[in-house]
Amino acid sequence: PHSRPRHPGARTMLPLLLLLLATAHGLDKLQYVPTLASPSLGGLMTTSTFVLEQPRCVFTEAQGDAVIWLVVAVPEAIANFNNSVGPGTPERAFQSFPTRAPAYMTLNTTLLNYPCPKPPGELTVLRVGSETRCARDETRPTCNGPLPSPGPYRVKFLALEGSKPVAETAWSEPITLRTAQPPGSILAMGSGRSAGMIALTSILSILFAILLAGLVAMLVFWGSDACGGSSTFNKPEAVTVQRYNTHHVYDQTAARL
């Protein structure tokens, strides 16, 4: 028996059906798009972390007991993403991301931590990937662990009341992290300049050694010359000691002879 051919538009209709299903269950689709924090913020993006702006004044219609989650996913998981798969499940565990879990959920908090309006002067950001201790701890599936590769990644915020999704933002634009260069490539890139610097350093070292040797020789010569000019070695004068014999003292024995 021949299998019935699939309709060519079946795959394109699936995201629309998921959207209609979410709407039927009362899921509020928000127009907010998660964005990276200001570029002026230091450490905005590293090889395993990035910094997002907090979703302030976004979940205004959600109930007070709703919990806001951050969803981090690979781009391939966006089209068929299922909001009914809750945090902490094997399909949403950080430790299985992205090989066995195409997305994970982390940084859960209540609306109290996202007050509206934003207090002036307050730093309202979220660093994704900042927890290292729970990265391999499977008892912490919602760990905010370091991201395993440069990505790209896409994120959104999802509000849950219990296990029921009630509101979600749009997905962010793809976020690609920095890539660390291996030491070998860094040496190869700078090898030409390093060789030139080594040659220049060698020449300068030789010239400095010659100059230093000449300076030492001059100091020795000047020192010896100064010593020779200031010291005079004169032959000591002969000291003549004249012998006197007093006239009233004489050898009595000689006189008698």
Automatic annotation (TrEMBL):
<feature type="signal peptide">
    <location>
        <begin position="1"/>
        <end position="26"/>
    </location>
</feature>
<dbReference type="GO" id="GO:0016020">
    <property type="term" value="C:membrane"/>
</dbReference>
<keyword id="KW-0812">Transmembrane</keyword>
<dbReference type="InterPro" id="IPR024831">
    <property type="entry name" value="Uroplakin-3"/>
</dbReference>
<keyword id="KW-0732">Signal</keyword>
<keyword id="KW-0472">Membrane</keyword>
<protein>
    <submittedName>
        <fullName>UPK3L protein</fullName>
    </submittedName>
</protein>
<keyword id="KW-1133">Transmembrane helix</keyword>
<feature type="transmembrane region" description="Helical">
    <location>
        <begin position="197"/>
        <end position="222"/>
    </location>
</feature>
